[in-house]
Write a structure and sequence with these properties.
The structure is a homodimer.
Chain A: H1 5-17, H2 20-27, H3 31-45, E1 50-53, E2 56-59, H4 61-91, E3 94-99, H5 107-118, E4 123-128, E5 145-149, E6 159-166, E7 168-173, E8 184-185, E9 193-196, H6 203-208, E10 220-224, H7 228-236, E11 242-245, H8 248-251, E12 257-263, E13 268-274, H9 282-295
The first copy, chain A, binds a DNA duplex (30 and 30 nucleotides) through helix 3.
Amino acid sequence: MDVDTRLVRYFAAVAEEGGLTRAARRLFVSQPALTKQIRRLETGLGVELFTRSRSGMALTEAGRALAEQAPELLAACDRALRETKSAASRAARVLRVGFLASAANEATQDIIAGFGRRRPGWRVEMRQAAWSDPTAGLADGEVEAALLRLPFPGAGALRAEVLLTEERQVALPAAHPLAGRDRIDFRELRDEPFVAAPAETGRWRDYWLAADERGGRPPRIGAVTDQPDAWLQAIANGYGIALAPESAARFYARPGVVYRPVTGVAPSSVAVVWPPAADTDPVVQDFVRCCRDAVGGPAEEDPPGGPGPAPG
Amino acid sequence: MDVDTRLVRYFAAVAEEGGLTRAARRLFVSQPALTKQIRRLETGLGVELFTRSRSGMALTEAGRALAEQAPELLAACDRALRETKSAASRAARVLRVGFLASAANEATQDIIAGFGRRRPGWRVEMRQAAWSDPTAGLADGEVEAALLRLPFPGAGALRAEVLLTEERQVALPAAHPLAGRDRIDFRELRDEPFVAAPAETGRWRDYWLAADERGGRPPRIGAVTDQPDAWLQAIANGYGIALAPESAARFYARPGVVYRPVTGVAPSSVAVVWPPAADTDPVVQDFVRCCRDAVGGPAEEDPPGGPGPAPG
DNA sequence: CACGTCCATACCAACAGGTTATAGAGGCTT
DNA sequence: AAGCCTCTATAACCTGTTGGTATGGACGTG
């Protein structure tokens, strides 16, 4: 009997949601597809897992047993994939680091340079992830560490160490009436349309919509984007405004987009994040140390002209 | 990233066998199919698992990591399926018992009757398995317990308690020159063609070919069968002879087949077998106890005329 | 030098897994 | 009571994947 872990995930979703329709929405598949897959799982096992009714699906005894075993199975699968990918990058002397947008801002170069000095022969591979993956591949073992902005989902299962904190600003279309103001209070922006991250990013999306500072009123969504460039495009097009870290003014300057300070919203922090399994990985720990060093003590600055071989 | 456990099994087979061709034979798939699946696994993971060479496939670092994690993954999968099926049968008040041919002979009825008395409301479901599955479904969690003849493969991972031991006889076509003899020494049979179990049953097949009593000379195989009826048919047709437990003369009497005592081969034992996970399962343990009782103290014998309704 | 072994590729048939559209059964509201 | 909403099941269809056989090319061996 062979089992596709996808079927187990489907099963778990239906069990948790208590119905095919809701689970299908969560899994981003159609409800008939789920119907078929669940039946296939049942006939494959030769066991009824759910009792169907007009109001949803309830677990049978057998279903409860499977629901109990499923997390362990999926965890074992996850561990296997993570270990494999990690071993591959270790063998190639590559440390893969995920990030979403500007990573650790100006400190990023220092971190990488410091790591290069501490681990000669090793290379840092910076992997930019889409916003729909807020842990930048850390959750899938796609990277060994990540530079993320807080908050991020799944923070409980990961180690994080805050590196720097900066104020948030607002990114406005150049033609926006408030674009000329020196300072804007967030309450003036609450009813503006916002350019937001995809809905499935949950808390992270809420944070950048400043849901906490809205007093319960829902935000207006003018556009949904998944990448920095589409985000800038949407703002420049006037589809909406957006909050952004102060450093975005430097890293994401674009014609048609202006950044202005905002009061009344919490600042944004960047953290270096790694999975607990890497607590004992000397390479990852070296990287964490380099992050600390790069933001803590600027240490010895390279002479003007920057790092690298002398020109000519 | 979703993974089909089939791919992991494929991978494990290739890793163990050290080559696609050999692994393909073991998995009963074609070599090109394996080639494709392994490549699919590699591209899906984005990792090279093997280094190809003219003389086979060698694991990379990443491959070694996966090979290390695979057993745990497969075990978790196995456990999940076993628990689910077991829960289903428990909920239905059914104890599934696998067996291959005559189970525990005449004691079988007593065992089932005793279990019915000990666990009112429960039902024993006897599942006959093909010889190609020498643990009668125990390995797949298809049954909670089994009545098997020793030796059986995978005995190390299972609990077994011998119930009875009986001499082996030889089953001959009625027209066979030796069919009239009262007693036959196995050495007289060594060069006869034998009706054998499928090759994949390994030690079990060897045992019924009396490989140990052949002094290293390979047996002649006259036919391969997977089920009792095909076995009897093959013998009656004169394709070969076969060893069989004494009780086969009673349970598998057929025109055209005669059974004769044989000297020089080890006797055959029947055991009740269960997985270690069922050590604490009260229902399985009750069944084991019933097995013990049924063969230990013959208890009250049925009156002459045998069990069952009186002839009309 | 012929041969066997091993992995890779090409091509084809069957199926699995997804989609949209639709049916049918209950419960809730008006 | 009628209408509407929600839930699952089914039908029809399309595509990608898994399997098969046949074959090619590389390398070591008798």
